């Protein structure tokens, strides 16, 4: 009998806030006999905190040349995994061949460096996450334009990481360290705001000279970026 009321067609329920009482079972493809679940790899590799789990097992047996990789993220991850594998081997051997000071320096840094480099690898999987610098600077009420900070465009973090690891693999460690300095300090003219007060005239007060800082780069803005950049430098030193 038609009542002309709203309701579910399947279970005939007329409660709008209720749920359908008919249980619909998922129909499996009869041709699919693999017995595997339908979860994706990205879902399977997520931890309880929602972050991708980085597996450090089976590091590359050798460091391949940069030319073997078409994309920079793949090369950087290969470089990181290779040298973490080397570092773990040296740790298992008790840092044989290292001086006492070098061994004592490296021992407590391995685990923290691995955690920091996990951040880098996750961001390499989505390279847009690497650049986190300021795009503009706060404008004040300065009387002269020369007192305002300037926006110094930051070079791509991915490109800089590529150059550092490539120079390190080519044993050009001076260029690799120079690249690290550029990555962390940037090309700012003024890293912090400078203020000086000078007597204007006798017993007539003072004049303020100010130069506001330039925009912060990724290293300045993001503590996690600082961690993986420090860890990457350790790998360059290990190389």
Question: What does this entry look like structurally?
Answer:
The protein has 239 residues and is mostly helical. Helices cover 39% and strands 5% of the residues. It contains 8 helices and 2 strands. The protein has a two-stranded antiparallel ribbon with strand order 1-2.
Relevant terms:
239 residues, mainly alpha, two-stranded antiparallel ribbon, 39% helix
Question: How large a portion of the residues is in β-strands, by DSSP E?
Answer: 5-15%
Total helical segments: 8
Shape: flat
Q: Strand order across the biggest sheet?
A: 1-2
Q: Roughly what is the average pLDDT, rounded to an integer?
A: 76
What distance lies between the first and last C-alpha atoms, to the nearest angstrom? 82 Å
List SSEs in N-to-C order.
HHHHHHEEHH
- Integer-rounded radius of gyration: 28 Å
Query: Poorly predicted ranges (pLDDT <50, ≥5 residues)?
Result: 32-44
What structural class results from the helix and strand content?
A: mainly alpha
Helix proportion = 25-40%
Number of strands: 2
Describe the biggest sheet?
A: 2 strands, antiparallel
């Amino acid at each position: 009998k038609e009542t002309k009321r709203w309701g579910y067609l399947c279970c005939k329920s007329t409660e709008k806030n209720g749920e359908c009482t008919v249980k619909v079972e998922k129909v499996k493809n009869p041709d699919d006999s693999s017995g595997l679940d339908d979860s994706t790899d990205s879902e399977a590799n997520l931890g309880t905190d929602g972050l991708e789990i980085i597996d450090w097992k089976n590091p590359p047996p050798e460091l391949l040349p940069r030319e073997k990789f078409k994309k920079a993220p793949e090369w950087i991850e290969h470089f990181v995994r290779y040298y973490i594998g080397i570092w773990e081997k040296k740790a298992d051997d008790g840092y044989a061949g290292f001086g006492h000071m070098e061994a004592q320096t490296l021992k407590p840094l391995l685990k923290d460096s691995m955690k920091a480099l996990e951040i880098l690898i996750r961001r390499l999987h989505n390279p847009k996450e690497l650049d986190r610098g300021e795009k503009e600077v706060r404008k004040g009420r300065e009387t002269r334009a020369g007192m305002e900070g300037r926006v110094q465009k930051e070079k791509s973090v991915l490109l800089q990481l590529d150059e550092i690891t490539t120079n390190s693999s080519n044993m050009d460690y001076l260029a690799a360290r120079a690249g690290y300095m550029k990555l962390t300090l940037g090309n700012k003219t003024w890293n912090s705001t400078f203020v000086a007060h000078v007597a204007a005239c006798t017993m007539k007060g003072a004049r303020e000279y100010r130069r506001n800082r330039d925009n912060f780069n990724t290293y300045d803005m993001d503590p996690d970026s600082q961690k993986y950049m420090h860890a990457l430098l350790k790998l360059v030193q290990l190389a």
